[in-house]
Amino acid sequence: MSDVPALEGVLTSSEVLRTAEAIAEVQEPAGAIPWFRDGHLDPWDHVQSAMALTAAGLTGRAEAAYEWCRQTQRPDGSWASKYVAGRVEDASADANFTAYVATGVWHHWTITRDRAFVERMWPVVRAAIGAVLSLQTSGGEIHWGREPSGAVKPEILLTGNASVHLSLRCAVALAEVVGELAPEWELAAARLGHVVERHPERFADKHRYSMDWYYPILSGVLSRADADARLAARWDDFVVPGLGIRCVADQPWVTGAETCELVLALDAIGRPDDAREQLAAMQHLRHDDGSYWTGYVYPDATRWPVEQTAWTAATVILATDALSRTTPGSGLFRGEGLPSGVLAGALEGTCSCPANR
């Protein structure tokens, strides 16, 4: 079992383990991890929570969560967008939610080296990536998802596409583990990375949201110079010194998960001091039981919403692991062990942007 992550002066290993146990306490008998006890589940946050359990050494709990994914995957490779107590509440499919299982399975493999687990989950990953790539356009971007009727949701989301890019890279790495070739996935990742990096006009305008600010960095698409420039351009819009970062630029509301994802992005581009400062800043959201409040409205000194979410706690654990380099999975968001973000030469002659016409 790997050591439990800790970061001196921020979180001890005992505190991180208690946070993992708080996640495990909301896990349902079938392995599902809802946002909080008796709350709803979405597949992305479920996998994020499973990853944190693995990082903290609760591998049995994590594997139960992945088994839930295996048992509930639909014939087309997707999952419903929302479940409550085992029932589907929103039958639509979300491309990003569906793809993220590849990220989780790769993360679990890097820590456990459990080949039997990967082989058991490989058909799940393969089907999920097939469902996601059925939504990729000729330009490389990926539609949001599908309605319950099967109709494509036309909106194109930057954060979702950036996250899918990371998941595709994880899927390619998993294919190598099981001895399969996936050149079409590599090309899909290259095309997607290109559009995330070069064509912001193709995405819905969500500039209010901090996720659209940092996710192209977190996904491994941008160079260090471009990432630094992107962060500098809106740092003051989102970062609230001593508290964390805003979820949306025009509201006085800081959120823990977004702050910790920024931590991961900063660490990925070699800015550990800035990352550590942000992880320390958001600790005011920690509850006595090791869980974390979702957010804080600072003019009112009010926690809002009044909920302690498993996925917030999970992202704290993953950020702590990344900065402390504790487990073999700590380099996930630095791209360690993954194919590069863009295939060299893969897009030569195929790009439709003006410079290549």
TrEMBL record:
It comes from Cryptosporangium phraense. This is Prenyltransferase. GO terms for molecular function: transferase activity. Gene3D superfamilies: 1.50.10.10. GO terms for biological process: carbohydrate metabolic process. Keywords: Transferase.
